[in-house]
Amino acid sequence: GGRTLFAFSRDVAGSGKSVCVGTCAANWPPLPVAASAAPLGDYTIITRADGSKQWAFRGMPLYYYVKDTKPGDKLGDGVGGIWKIARP
């Protein structure tokens, strides 16, 4: 809780897919979904290529950044020009 969430500009909003896999997902862990969770408002659930579930906001999958170690860290913002903070 409290850690910054990011969106990946190479994901296509509403596609229900994440293109951040392999090394990308190791550096940008997907926001996991509890087994009991249900979609709520702008928050939806997608299924990743490996079958795991991931939260999305307004159709964009949500990720943490591995280098953000404490709540409020925002080191991932702007990385590679393709990562940005997901703002509700």
Structure notes:
The protein has 1 helix and 5 strands, in the order βαββββ. By secondary structure, it is mainly beta. The chain has a 3-stranded antiparallel beta sheet, with no helix packed on it. The model has no long low-confidence stretch (mean pLDDT 96).
Describe how the helices and strands are arranged.
Layout: E1 6-8, H1 23-27, E2 43-47, E3 53-57, E4 60-61, E5 83-85
Antiparallel strand pairs: 1-5, 2-3, 3-4
Give a quick rundown of the structure.
By secondary structure, the chain is mainly β. It is built from one helix and five strands. It is globular and about 30 Å long.
Keywords:
mainly beta; 88 residues; 3-stranded antiparallel beta sheet
Using only CA atoms, what is the Rg? 12 Å
The whole-number mean of residue pLDDT values reads 96
Helices and strands, in N-to-C order?
Answer: EHEEEE
Low-confidence stretches: none
The major pleated sheet works out as: 3 strands, antiparallel
Continuous helix count:
1
What percent of residues adopt helix (DSSP H or I)? under 10%
Number of DSSP E strands: 5
The strands making up the biggest β-sheet line up spatially as 2-3-4
Measured between the Cα atoms of the first and last residue, the distance is 15 Å
Overall form: globular
